[in-house]
Amino acid sequence: MISSRKDYLEYLRADSIARKRNRGIFCISFDKVWVFQRRMRRLEYLTNCRKNRVARMVAAYQYNRLGRELGFSIPINVFGPGLSIAHHGTIAINGGTSVGCNCRLHVCVNIGTAAGKLSDAPRIGDNCYIAPGVKMFGKIEIGDNTVIGANAVVNKSFSEGNCTIGGIPAKVISKKSSEGIITKGFKKPDE
Question: Where are the domains of the chain?
């Protein structure tokens, strides 16, 4: 979670590297997904670190408006640094979800709670790749370096990590990890 201006700038840098964006004019103006990610990080910074309500309200309005345009329903303070949203399209994330650093997220992803239990949201580890169409729900835990295959329905934990899961319901289909599939925008000090 962003707790200082230094964290805010580090999150932006990590997200930029993970999305493989340079500082060209196209990146700054025309890539709406990148603009959305920047607005999300700004709103997180203003919410967690600043007391200026007017700036926070303006940032929230801009963030929510662009989110509706792109089809995103992503609350703040859910994703760690190094987030990479591949394309615009339907993405719905529950506010209780916790996702580690370096997550690659595709379209038509739904991460939610078990029916009737608002606090039972998934916990997703670091360096995870979430393919198009993935549905995850309930109080589950996904380990580090996990690949979740296209259209998988994940309703149980895979906390061991370093594997590929897929299917309906999801099961381990390979011991191949996310190494080489995602770009790590954020590197922990021990890596």
Answer: 1-71, 90-180
* CATH of range 90-180; options 3.40.30.10, 3.30.565.10, 2.160.10.10, 3.40.50.720: 2.160.10.10
Distance CA 137, CA 121 (A): 7
The first and second tokens of residue 37, run together, are 């990610």
Q: Helix, strand, or coil here: 28?
A: helix
What is the average pLDDT across 71-78?
A: 95
Looking at residue 178, its pLDDT comes to: 83
d(CA 57, CA 81): 23
**CA nearest 96: which of 129, 120, 60?**
120
Q: Which pTM does this prediction carry? A: 0.89
Return phi, psi of residue 59, to 5°. Answer: -65, -40
SS3 149: coil
User: What gap in Å lies between CA 133 and CA 152, rounded to an integer?
Assistant: 7
Looking at residue 179, the DSSP 8-state letter turns out to be: T
pLDDT, tens digit (0-9, with 9 covering 90-100), for 110-160: 999 987 777 789 999 999 999 999 999 999 999 999 999 999 999 999 999
Residue with token string 């926070």: 56
Question: Which token pair is 65?
Answer: 């408006």
